[in-house]
Write a structure and sequence with these properties.
With 344 residues, the protein is of the alpha+beta class. It folds into two domains: 47-167, Cytochrome Bc1 Complex, Chain D, domain 2; 222-343, Nuclear Transport Factor 2, Chain: A. It is built from twelve helices and six strands. Helix 6 (114-123) packs across helix 7 and helix 9 (222-235) packs across helix 12.
């Protein structure tokens, strides 16, 4: 027995020494475009699976069938996950193709284990490209994403776009969407009381990784229409804004609803035009897609500056749904929301 233990110790020391030599000499290739050997891959895969299972086994799974939770999860999934894990009808992105190990296409995964999915989203996975979203999101909103994952494989591209449009956008930082004030005490035409709605101005781009890579929007595309809308709002061009809106556009702002272009023009539009002239804009991230005659664009931006001698710092989320018509892309739905920039 003593000889056996001595032999095992010697073998272990030789392996450790060999490993140190390989690492020190830089012989092991860590490039993402070269796969691990089957032995190394299986070892890492087993370690990952067992680590997650052990740490997730005592988690209590809440009700994942709540429709509001699923909708919130749609907005967060679209903002945080699409570039790697894709969406219905969406081709592989530069990121999803380039990562190793390859991130799973979650539109095709039908056996999501809720507790394990929650743990992975919250804590991430070392050296895999999977971030720990729990550093900036409360557990409630992570469970929302898990709830959405259970529904995702059954959604068509159009249903996915509808869920995202109805979600209210990205609940980053724990979901503290507060709405953004046009100015303390400012009233919309035809309304009274302090308003807390918002819209964002942006220089749109639909990069697959969601980062601010600024490209020129090709004429006649949904992105070009969105850019024109932002420019019209910032320049105070009310007629151009109205021209871009469908007559039956549905606009949600800070809990209020305008159900037509005419209603918006007579209520919130004048205040929105005044508001956008007073602040600076910085695009934080953006995503979107086109499915047939429908398209959607989701933007998150930073609005900052001074309004009526008061400092303003807001993170704004904008969701636009557009429909192609003989006259070009028309906006049929807008959702504007925000939260305080101080939470960042």
């Amino acid at each position: 027995m003593k000889k056996l233990l001595m032999s095992a110790a010697i073998v272990l020391m030789v392996l450790l020494g060999l490993g140190a030599l390989i690492v020190g000499a830089g012989l092991y290739n860590v490039a993402a475009d070269e796969a691990h050997s089957p032995l190394v891959y299986r070892f890492l895969e087993t370690a990952r699976e067992r680590s997650i299972a052990v740490r997730a086994r005592d988690l209590k799974v809440p009700n994942l069938e709540d429709a509001a939770s699923v909708r919130r999860g749609a907005g967060n999934y679209d903002a945080m996950c699409v570039s790697c894990h894709l969406a219905p009808g969406k081709d592989e992105s530069e990121i999803s193709v380039g990562l190793y190990p390859a991130p799973p296409n979650l539109t095709k995964v039908t056996d999501v284990e809720p507790a394990e999915a929650f743990w992975v989203i919250k804590h991430g996975i070392k050296a895999s490209g999977m971030p720990a979203w729990g550093k900036r999101m409360e557990d409630l909103y992570i469970w929302d994403v898990v709830a959405f994952l259970n529904k995702l494989p059954a959604l068509s591209a159009e249903q996915y776009a509808q869920e995202v449009a109805a979600s209210g956008g990205h609940s980053h930082g724990g979901g503290e969407a507060t709405g953004h004030s046009h100015a303390a005490g400012e009233e919309h035409e035809g309304q009274s009381g302090e308003d807390t709605d918002e819209h964002t101005d942006s220089n749109p781009t639909l990069d697959a990784d969601g980062k601010q890579h600024v490209h020129e929007a090709p004429a006649g595309t949904p992105v070009a229409a969105v850019k024109t809308l932002h420019e019209a709002l910032s320049s105070g061009n009310a007629s151009e804004v109205e021209e871009l809106l469908d007559p039956n556009v549905l606009i949600l702002e800070g809990g209020s609803v305008q159900r037509s272009r005419k209603e918006y023009a007579g209520h919130h539009l004048p205040a929105d035009l005044r508001f956008m002239k007073s602040l600076g804009y910085k695009l934080e991230r953006q995503s979107g897609d086109t499915v047939g005659d429908l398209a959607w664009v989701v933007s998150e931006a930073r609005l900052s500056g001074n309004r009526e001698d008061k400092p303003v710092d807001i993170v704004s989320t904008e969701t636009l749904v557009l429909k192609k018509s003989p006259a070009g892309w028309k906006i049929v739905h807008i959702h504007w929301s925000s939260r305080s920039g101080k939470a960042n």
